[in-house]
Amino acid sequence: MALPLLKYAPTTQNSRVDGLRVGSDEDPKAVSMDKAMDREDQNFVIEAAYRQIFFHAFKVDRDLTLESQVRNGQITVRDFIRSLCLSDTFNRSFYTLNSNYKVARHLVEKLLGRQTHGKAEEIAWSAVLMTRGVKGMVDDILDSEEYLNAFGYDTVPYHRNRVVGSRDLGETPFNITSPRYDAYYRGILGFPQIVYTGTARKLPERSLQRRGGFPQDYMPWVRTLPALRGANASGSADIDYLSKVPYRSLGR
Predict the structure, then answer these.
(1) DSSP, res 58
(2) pTM of the predicted model, to two decimals?
(3) Rg over CA atoms, the chain
(4) Running along the chain, 252 residues long, what does each successive block of 10 average in pLDDT?
(5) CA distance 2 to 136
(6) One-character DSSP codes across 4-33
């Protein structure tokens, strides 16, 4: 039996109202299909949708049929986003490799463009995942009043609260706070790792030639010098400098 969405409260009162701040270049940019004037703009909207859901879409992850439908206006951007969340790529490379809490947090961040309101909201959406699956949660989010008011039918979801007016440092992007794989699966898959496929460059022979001025070049000569005998172990601290200075007496 499907359970209704559990009640949860925003973590702060500021979450209930829109932030008041002066616009800047750091503000999020809305990407909407209704503003696309040509095919290049349409491709930009489609790429933004792929990045929002998949972080990065490989050639095998793309669905040319859906792309053609959204370009021709047969489906909306909202429908395109729904199809990406219900695709085999999302199920195989994300849903099956993470816990329900992680999937719930990821979908809220990616579809609503904000962080979850604490653990209570994660638990609430996790219950939806448990009873109705990914499709039930995606449908509930895309049909919610919050999503429609924020993005409507033709705007790609984006990180809405990237810049915080009361802090110098804004919120960390979602792809850093919520990576696709947990640490457990990152260890199994063997990444992150650096794979270099190029040819290592070697230093030329002339760079190994010394041209003088290196202290190491004089060490063999220093070792051949005889040891100084009779040197005062206390150093120069006990030397009477005044007795060593010549002077001329008056009257001579």
Answers:
(1) -
(2) 0.63
(3) 34
(4) 62 54 59 82 90 83 90 92 92 85 90 87 89 92 92 89 57 66 66 67 74 74 74 62 67 54
(5) 9
(6) PPPP---SSGGGGS-------TTS---EEG
